[in-house]
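Model it.
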Amino acid sequence: MVTILIAEDDRNVRLLLGETLRSAGFTVIESRDGKDALAQLDQQHVDLVVTDVMMPHVSGIELVELLRESGYEQPVLMLTVLDSFQDKEAGFTTGADDYMVKPVDLDELLLRIRALLRRSKIVSAQELIVGALQLRMTDATVVTPHGEIPLPQKEFQLLYRLLAHPKQIFTRQQLMDEIWGYDVESDSRTVDVHIKQLRDKFSAYDDFTIETVWGLGYKGVIQ
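Modeled.
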């Protein structure tokens, strides 16, 4: 099931959007502002973000900037009362995929969301097959012939990133930027720790290896 995060500081609007999306069959996560949204995104996979622009703590513009800088590639739909060309230009320039002016027509909102999902192939691309293993993005789980291995979000994102681009070398800093981009308390050694944990958990499987490229970083190799 597709998961959508709503970042909206107006409680009534947030509840209305959430009810509309749930009725349409989506899983919904609600955040009261951009800061809360970042915390939610740090803990779980989200397929699409719907965000208000004017929010306390971290605005919608700042939220999208932080997400794009960290390598988050899923679609983002902005909602705002600001309807000038300059406002829309700022949203798209920041990295938003679509932009709607409040009050939004809920039927049109659903149409735009489904179009964004089709465009990004999220609806059909919820998993990655590596040999006999299935990396299931919806719940950060690796399905093996012997059962399921649930992973913490960061470990899953790291593994998915490496195996979705086999033999591509990723530097530690690149992985930090893409996966821990807005977690300023982490450093590159965090990557090493997570790599070790992944190697330990999948040592019994020969479908892939995570190789160290000395002086550079890591790469995933599918056998």
